[in-house]
Amino acid sequence: MVIVSFFVFLAIFGPSIAPYPPRDPVCFYLGCTALPPFQSLAHPLGTEPAGYDIYSEILQSARNDLYVGLGATLISLGIGVAVGALAGYRKGISAALFLGVTQIFFVLPALVIILLFARIFVTLVAKGLGLTMIMLILGAFGWPGIAFVVRGEVIRIRELEFVQAERAIGAGNQRILFRHIVPNILSPIIVYATLTIAANILTEVVISFLGFGDPNTATWGLLIQEGFVYPNYWWIDVFPGLAVIFSVLGFNILGDGLSDALNPRLRE
Amino acid sequence: MVMANEIISVKDLVTYFFTEAGVVKAVDGVSFAIDEGESVGLVGESGSGKTVTALTMMGIVQRPGKIVSGEIFYRGQNILKMSEDEARKIRGKKIGMVFQDPNSSLDPLYTVGNQLTEVVRVHSKISKKEAYQKALSLLELVKISEPEARLRAYPFELSGGMKQRVATARALAGEPEVLIADEPTTNLDVTIQAQVLELLKDLRKELGMTLILITHDMGIIAEMTTKIVVLYAGRVAEIASTKDLYRTPRHPYTAALLRAVPRVDVRKQLVPIAGNIPNLINPPTGCRYHPRCPYSTQDCVDQIPPLETIEGNRQVSCHHWKDLADKKELVIA
């Protein structure tokens, strides 16, 4: 919780705290390139050979990483809940259809497709829309897991008597599903979504690291990729890497904590 | 043909459940008619089709169940022929239903007030304030103490009896003309049972409602109803006024049911009904009661007994009712 709050705080205020604007090769002009960390107060975490200040870049990246992680998760959540709810609530052919589509998306190698898309829409990447595109693609392929969770829970709730009672007062299917069933399964959805945020941040790092990201937008993955080229300058990789590890760990702990807190059986 | 005061009637209702194990013939040709203001008991053992009949009457049978054929008339309109939207206007508004288990028939996430106003708002556009007033008066109607505080309570904060009162209030929110109560007391303590039954009785008197009470408790039925429909394995065994049914059962199954009920005034051995309710995937041929019936003959195995109107005002479905009536075989005590 603390880690996540800190991370969100960085995402919001990072760019204003950061001493230099994003992607600003300050040291390129000042001649302080490839500076190791802890040697200069101006560049506490060192600099890259290209002149970027690592401390500043990490701060600048936090917002972008959260943007991708959270945005993609929200998209997945929207699709996943809708598809999962319908697959669980309907019976017969339409339910099978929804389930089938989910399964197809589930087995698709999402990462490969994402990389493919990133290549195809390389023009958009150049226009600075790369990050948004990655977010959209991650969101569009990340929903099957959520759909499965939702479907299972809906099936469980669907047969409870209060659902039948809702029908008996003349409530329509839409009302029953979205006003009564979905609210009753919010806690597993929230937990799953939290874990999805972490997974999405990681995937974004992978994409950027492989060089399919937007080279003009600072993200932790991009920093790691830049460091990868210079094996001798360990600090370029290590600090953004730590940022990734801690934020992902933070979201996972949060998800775990939420699942404990929201599960009444574990409360005693 | 429809009598002026007939409010609801079902004709040859057939509801099957299409499961993987086979077709469960839960309700297989049930017919009865209910007059306005009557209090009708639907009795039978577990699995005799009581609840499914009720759900069918509401038109809310869920898959794998399906209403195969039959007609349900509410004031002369066939509910099963209506569009879903039209039928929804009748559900809750004209026919209300109270379910078996008050612990699970309320959505745990909404307050009592929310759940009550929901019913009103599903059926009519009224302001929040009016809906609130309505919910309050409903709670007063079902005699809940401190109704204003209860409106803000969640179901888990209420006792079983109180929940059943809320569920009843909910069923009454649309001011229905018919209230179906599906074993409203099975999950309650005996003392609370009495209170809930008393409440239903009072409500019927006050609101002039028609009550359909589903139960397997013959004691409750005697207390609460004016007419009884006895179901056996998805078919009607006998329909008669409560008085006639208790005094002179005409169907061997009814007699057997009554003999299985303890009575304070008669010192007598209870007689359980031998055997079990048949498997409804492969029900017995002919009269479904024949494997358990002491009077069964070859006719009972071969032919389905028709539901005959006898003695003017009652119906029975038995090949031998006349013989048995003449010999006074079925007289209780």
Structure explained in plain terms:
The complex is a heterodimer of chains A (268) and B (333). Chain A is 75% helix and 0% strand. Chain A contains 12 helices and no strands. The radius of gyration of chain A is 22 Å and the shape is elongated. By secondary structure, chain B is an alpha/beta fold. Chain B has a domain at 104-208: P-loop containing nucleotide triphosphate hydrolases (Rossmann fold), CATH 3.40.50. Helix content of chain B is 33%, strand content 24%. In chain B, the strands form 2 sheets. An 8-stranded mixed β-sheet of chain B has the order 6-7-8-3-9-10-12-11, with helices on both faces. In chain B, strands 2-1-4-5 form a 4-stranded antiparallel β-sheet. In chain B, strand 7, helix 7 and strand 8 (210-215) form a beta-alpha-beta unit. In chain B, 47% of the residues are buried. Classes of the chains: A mainly alpha (268), B alpha/beta (333). Chains A and B meet through helix 8 and helix 9 of A and helix 2, helix 3 and helix 6 of B.
Structure keywords:
heterodimer; A: 268 residues; MetI-like fold; 75% helix; B: alpha/beta; Rossmann fold; eight-stranded mixed beta sheet; four-stranded antiparallel beta sheet; 33% helix
Q: Any idea how many domains of chain A?
A: 1
Number of strands of chain B: 12
Fraction in beta strands of chain A: under 5%
- How many helical stretches of chain B? 12
Shape of chain B: globular
Biggest contact: A-B, 18 and 32 residues
Encode the helix/strand succession of chain A as letters: HHHHHHHHHHHH
Briefly note the CATH topology name of chain A. MetI-like fold
What's this, in brief?
With 268 residues, chain A is mainly alpha-helical. Chain A contains 12 helices and no strands. Chain B has 12 helices and 12 strands.
